[in-house]
Amino acid sequence: MNAPDLIIVDPDILGGTPVFKGTRVPVNTLFEYLENNYTLDEFLECFPSVTREMACRLLARSESAVPAACES
User: Fold this and answer.
1) pTM above 0.90, yes or no
2) Range of the domain at 27
């Protein structure tokens, strides 16, 4: 599963806000939940259209992108 399989940006879906593909759940919502000390399970319970695999893949991709973004 690569980025296009995880995220979609479509002006007809939430005005172009990046969402998990096949859902109307903004990607940023996952990060907001985690930043506010909610667990991944709590996020998934609130947004059942997002699978555990989708959330974990996004988090893994984000983790690998952060060090590269900070190197300069």
Assistant:
1) no
2) 3-70
What is the per-residue pLDDT for 6?
Answer: 92
Helices (H), the chain: 3-6, 27-35, 40-46, 52-70
Please name which of 39, 59, 36, 35 lies closest in space to residue 47, comparing C-alpha atoms: 39
Total structural domains within the chain: 1
> CA-CA distance, 2 to 60, in Å (whole number)?
11
CATH number of the CATH domain containing 57? 1.10.10.10
Quick check: helix, strand or coil at residue 33?
helix
Q: Does pLDDT of 24 surpass 50?
A: yes
